[in-house]
Amino acid sequence: MRHPLLASSVLASLFFTGCIFVHATDSSHSAEAKAHAHAAGGARANATLEARSSAMLSGTASFREQQGGVLIEIEVHHAPPGWHAVHVHEKGDCSAPDASSAGGHFNPLAKNHGSPQAPEHHCGDLGNFWVDEQGEGRHVLLMSELTVADGPNSVRGRALIVHAGVDDLVTQPTGNAGGRIACGVIQ
Ligand SMILES: [Cu+2]
Ligand SMILES: [Zn+2]
User: Fold this and answer.
1) What are 45-81's pLDDT values in tens digits?
2) Which residues are catalytic?
3) Which ligand is nearest to the CA of 177?
4) Can you give the residue range of the structural domain that contains 177?
5) Which ligand is nearest to the CA of 183?
6) Does 53 reside within a domain?
7) Which residues neighbour 157 within 8 Å (Cβ) at sequence distance 6 or greater?
8) What is this structure's pTM?
């Protein structure tokens, strides 16, 4: 069943750019993972965001692999109004009350912190999003560097973190975004 899909999988992978390592000459394991991803209409993962650091918000995040990268959709409810930083952090561990257990920003390419639109940024740097007066916020972006399928840049097994403050997109290596008010393991 997977074999007829290999050709289209290889074609699709030719369009990928950035720091994605999966390409046409990859091992059969990666090609197989790609074939499964396409068979399912793109590999998907989700995170349920839980409040940390005495915050009250809730939320969800979805990750869908498609041509050109991973489409990420984040929604929060009952969050503090204003701009908030959001990142993929390296460890899928939200157990600490302040979410410090999730470690630093997901940075498989050892780059500097920055804006997701800048050439230099961690693969996990998702920028900032706006929460309105009702505490509702939504962030949608396509990240060319990430994958959902297995690989060095896969979001699976990492954590999505929402911060109390704004990512200044400059300060190393965190963006000086303040405490971690929500955390969700990506699975
Ligand atoms: Cu962060
Ligand atoms: Zn970063």
Assistant:
1) 999 999 999 999 999 999 999 999 999 999 999 999 9
2) 87, 89, 105, 113, 122, 125, 163, 180
3) 1
4) 43-185
5) 1
6) yes
7) 92, 185, 186, 187
8) 0.79
